[in-house]
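Bit of a strange request maybe. I'm writing a small parser for structure token strings and I need a real example to test against, not something I typed by hand. Could someone generate the tokens for this chain?
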Amino acid sequence: MIDANVSIGHYPFRQLPFDSQDATAVKTMLQSCGIQRACVSSLHAIFYGDPDQGNEELLPRVVNDDFYLPVGVVNPSLQNWRETLERCIGDYGCRMV
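Reply from user aminoacidic:
Good idea to test on real output. This should exercise your parser:
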């Protein structure tokens, strides 16, 4: 089973029963629910003015973990969106944005 909607980062609206900023803790929780792989992106990326900051915080930490499928966050309204997309694909191996 693959979870296609996992975000790692501080969830600002309520306390979660696990450390949502720790990729290992999130992985452990997901595996305990029978999840075998997870598409993961940075929760912080949606709150930053430039989502590439969130990508840089999270994606290097999960890129070599076979459990996670890295998902980049790109804002096409920003001037640097092409560079962000290229970094997501080239540096982090993202096949999804």
